Amino acid sequence: MASLNQLQRPIGLKRPMQRVGRGQSSGRGKQSGRGGKGQTARAGAKIRPAWRDIVKRLPKRRGFGKNRGRTVVGTRLDARAIAVGRLNKLFESDSTVSLSTLAERGITGRKLQGVKIVGGGELTKKLIVKGIQVSASAQTAIEKVGGIVS
Questions:
Q1: Number of alpha helices (DSSP H) and beta strands (DSSP E) in the chain
Q2: Where in 12-112 does DSSP place strands (E)?
Q3: What kind of architecture, by CATH, is found in domain 80-149?
Q4: What's the predicted TM-score (pTM) here?
Q5: For 83-92, how does the pLDDT look when each residue is reduced to its tens digit (9 = 90+)?
Q6: Phi/psi of residue 145, each to 5°?
Q7: Residue 87: how many other CB atoms lie within 10 Å
Q8: Opening angle at CA 19, ends 17 and 20, nearest 5
């Protein structure tokens, strides 16, 4: 068995090997790089990060992060509300109101965007509404004039 005075440096190692736990003047004595006393000085010491305690106290399912409600689709555009009074100005009597006709008149930028017709203003022309969501007040206004909602 080799003694300490017979140890040799590994080949290719330029700097002297640092020996741990041999006196205080060597720079690796006393606690030998293991910190202070207590939990951190023991082998296998793992301290839970402080931010984890903070995160665990937060309420669940709030806001727009990964805890957001699963039914909410962030990429879906909100429906654009169009007042009945605006339709009265844009369309002639007995004309059909659909997503394509609204896109032709420049009301909706895209055909894919949702549209909902809401009450607001006066409707004097008979209109046929197809494939568009209509509020209850707008439906009564359209049907009162003789229009059709389908």
A1: 4, 6
A2: 80-83, 95-97
A3: Ribosomal Protein L15; Chain: K; domain 2 (3.100)
A4: 0.50
A5: 999 998 999 9
A6: -85, -15
A7: 24
A8: 145
